[in-house]
Amino acid sequence: MTNYEILMILDPSLDETAVQDKIGIMKKWIEDLGGSLNLSEDKGIDRLAYEIKKAMQGRFVYILFSLDPLKIDSLRHELRLDEKVWRYNIKKNLQVKV
């Protein structure tokens, strides 16, 4: 298992409950692929550097997880299909921050 971190920009119109539901869905996807979610943080709404879908703000969510590198493309596919996930960046985490 490799440690990864993902930073997602979500639709800012989502309330706290909807964001926690999104994190729960992410956890389910990761566990279905044989991984584990180590940490999740809702960073809140912040200003964007450029406009996305006619909005200048987005809700940022940080997730730290472990997953088999061969299955990371399946997770990316699920993220691309989710309309509320505007942008995301997945990278290897060399330091585990648990």
UniProtKB/TrEMBL annotation:
What Gene Ontology terms describe where this protein resides (cellular component)?
ribonucleoprotein complex; ribosome
Coiled-coil ranges per UniProt: none
Please name the GO terms that the record assigns under molecular function.
Answer: rRNA binding; structural constituent of ribosome
Which NCBIfam families does the UniProt entry name for this protein? S6
| Function statement | Binds together with bS18 to 16S ribosomal RNA.
The record's family statement is: Belongs to the bacterial ribosomal protein bS6 family.
* UniProt protein name: Small ribosomal subunit protein bS6
Q: Which organism is it from?
A: candidate division WOR-3 bacterium
Point out the gene that encodes the protein.
rpsF
